[in-house]
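To whoever picks this up:

The parser on our side crashed when reading a file containing two proteins. I've narrowed it down to the boundary between the first structure block and the second sequence. Both blocks are reproduced below exactly, byte for byte. First block:
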Amino acid sequence: MTHVGYLIAGWGITLGTLAVYALRLVRRGRDLSAQVPDAHRRWLEDQGSGDA
C-alpha cells in the first residue's frame, strides 16, 4: 500500500467510526426520549411558561 493508501484508509476508518458513533448516539437519544413521561418533557413546554 502506498502512502496515499494509508492516508485514505486512516481517514476512512476514522470518519466511518465517527459516523457509526453519531448514528448510534442519535438512535439511543430517540429511544430514551420516548421513555420520558409527557409531564417531564421540558423541551415541549411553551416559551412563555416562565420555567426557563
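<<boundary where parser fails>>
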Amino acid sequence: MMENITMFIIGLIIFCAYVITLFTIIIKSNNAQQKDLDNDPELRGKS
C-alpha cells in the first residue's frame, strides 16, 4: 500500500513539473510572438 502512495506522489510531482514547464514555454512563446507582431512595420498601420 505504501509503495502505491509513493509512486503516486512521485508521478504527481513529475506531472506538475511537466505542466508548469509547458505553460511557461507557451506563455514565453506567446509574449515573443506578440512582441514581433508589435514591431512589424507592415502591420503597424493596420491595427
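After patching the parser it read the second block fine. The CA atoms of residues 6 and 12 lie 10 Å apart. The mean pLDDT is 92.
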